[in-house]
């Protein structure tokens, strides 16, 4: 992963281009990054589903109707019903809530803690740096999903525990990237200048280092969003995420869903499409954002 | 090179020690009382205090935490990870029974995906912005978005609906009956390998695109070399280093993939062992497996780094 972002150049060239209004900014993004815009559209669709699930969902996602078990997709139930007679489409709509909630909170909290540790590590240096780096090494010794699994298994199945379990493995990965970005920012003359003027450590960090490592931070947050949604799905699938009857996409695929393959393949089909499409949207958007924030990749 | 290897080996010791401490901490300190958890104490039911005390003694929980950690560490050094609470057999024995399946799955998935991914990535790079490139990119970006377990479920759906197939339950080692083994393993390999193939394809494509713009490639063309010689001998060789590291970093996803895939296909491998142990609250097994996963991850990454250093002398002398 490219770690050395030439950030000072990025801000300098951004200031040279004329100021755009928000609408023009959006238009420019669609024109220059159509793929990223498609990703943004998918994310927007997910957000709408999540926020207006009550209004949009045709049925109660928790209400089972035993007369309607395994109903085929039809005009009444577009995506069919599951083994409890619950409407699959309504459950997918409510599931967008869980996916987005876990995705956003896990990647934001993990990335923010990681970025702060990275900045502290880079700026303080010396023993603090050494200690934090070794700690991050230890955390990095665990494959992401395995560590999340261990934490989730101890905390027990609940949505807020999944957030913690997914956020912790993110911390060392972000700390690494932000640390090396902060190290190169620290070498700039203006940092030396404010230090010579007697600025305090927190002031230098807050006013001068953090604004200049925002680009890698934002890149990591968007990159981790899709990964966090995938991790939530995997944990729920394994029975370590949200507990029944929460309409989590991963949970909808777990347990008995594959064993109804012949009878009701739609139960295992639509939630998977929802996960893939959501993660796909975040990946597309994240890639384009990285391209436009990382000067090394710009104009390619 | 020797000094570099020695340095890297020395650095591994504190990392592994830290990993052992962290696993111990997660398993022993976070949940409060493991013995209570085993009896479902969090559900608030009545528990016989005698049984609880017996379980504490069996797990060594009645001893001070430092003694517990020391015992666990001493056991780790002798490959003694205690006994499973569920089966009563030593964890290491249970592990060794399941290891061949997981190793085979991991190795085959990696090999197959690399064999498929490198030519695909190469093709996409030399035919950049043609339909071939677009097709390869769509398939590979899908590999990053589609959850592994769903790929597995789709395989099962497809097989059941069209062939009335059910997954065979008994593991046949490849040296007993290679054909039966392959029949059992092919779909899990697809499930585990799709993501890996996708990531490797993307990496091959992008590094090759970078290298193809280098001056020495222009020189090679100018000398009048054939396309094959330029692409394979000059460009591909020089773009393989990032791909090698990628195989190391992807190992993390591979291990997660094994857990999920073995669960989907109900294969009796190490990954499923871990999930079963979690659901049985078999903490000695969970603790051992998490630690062993971390150590093998660290060791394979060391091997990858050494390979990298061997290929690229600049790294050794840093």
Structure description:
The complex is a heterodimer of chains A (300) and B (318). Chain A is mainly alpha-helical. Chain A has helices spanning 7-16, 22-32, 34-51, 53-56, 88-124, 126-140, 144-155, 159-186, 189-196, 201-212, 214-237, 249-253, 266-293. The model of chain A is unreliable at 1-15 (pLDDT under 50). In chain B, helix 7 packs across helix 10 (227-264), helix 9 (215-222) crosses helix 10 (227-264) and helix 11 packs antiparallel against helix 12 (283-311). The longest helix of chain B is centred in the last third of the chain and has 38 residues, at 227-264. Chain B is globular and about 85 Å long. The model of chain B has no long low-confidence stretch (mean pLDDT 82). Chains A and B meet through helix 6, helix 7, helix 11 and helix 13 of A and helix 1, helix 6, helix 7, helix 10 and helix 11 of B.
Could you provide a short overview of the structure?
The complex is a heterodimer of chains A (300) and B (318). With 300 residues, chain A is an all-alpha fold.
Comma- or semicolon-separated keywords:
heterodimer, A: 300 residues, mainly alpha, 71% helix, disordered N terminus, B: 318 residues, 78% helix, 0% strand, globular
Q: Pairing-aware structural class of the strands and helices of chain B?
A: mainly alpha
Mean pLDDT of chain A: 82
What's the count of strands of chain A? 0
The helix content of chain B, as a percent range, equals over 70%
Assembly type: heterodimer
Content-based structural category of chain A: mainly alpha
Shape annotation of chain A: elongated
Total number of helices of chain B: 13
Which strand-content bin applies to the residues of chain A? under 5%
Low-confidence stretches of chain B: none
Largest sheet of chain B: none
Largest interface: A-B, 44 and 48 residues
Number of helices of chain A: 13
Count of DSSP E strands of chain B? 0
* Largest sheet, strands/sense/barrel of chain A: none
